[in-house]
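Bump. Still looking for Troponin I, fast skeletal muscle structure tokens.
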Amino acid sequence: MLQTAATELEKEAAAKEQEKANYLAEHCPPLHMPSSMQELQEFCKKLHAKVEQVDEERYDTEVKLQKTTKELEDLSQKLFDLRGKFKRPPLRRVRMSADAMLRALLGSKHKVCMDLRANLKQVKKEDTEKEKDLRDVGDWRKNIEEKSGMEGRKKMFEGGE
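Sorry for the wait, here they are.
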């Protein structure tokens, strides 16, 4: 079995060599070098023209390939959209201040501070009469302590407060 496989491999290799030789004979004619300087220059010009033509063809094929791959990507995206099966990634909750968000969006150019309390006006409360009365009365704990015990009850009966 190994011998038959080895002979098959040899036959395939020989067939490939024969195919290669036939292709080269068909597409690449034998090269004959010109003897004079002028003929050599003309030969070089012909070679340069062929090289330029091959480069143009290669460039055109590359552009076509890029175009078709882009179309394939667009069509596959449309197909995916039409199916409607979207997999949502698990989202994490991120705590970020407004300044940090603006810095992330705008980059390091962001200099504006989003401290909302800094722009508020300072407002002074006007003293009302009730507040003055409450301040005059004093702390409620003192009033309770004064009324507690026997002295406080005595004051209440004697006509104190």
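The chain has six helices and no strands.

Edit: fixed formatting.
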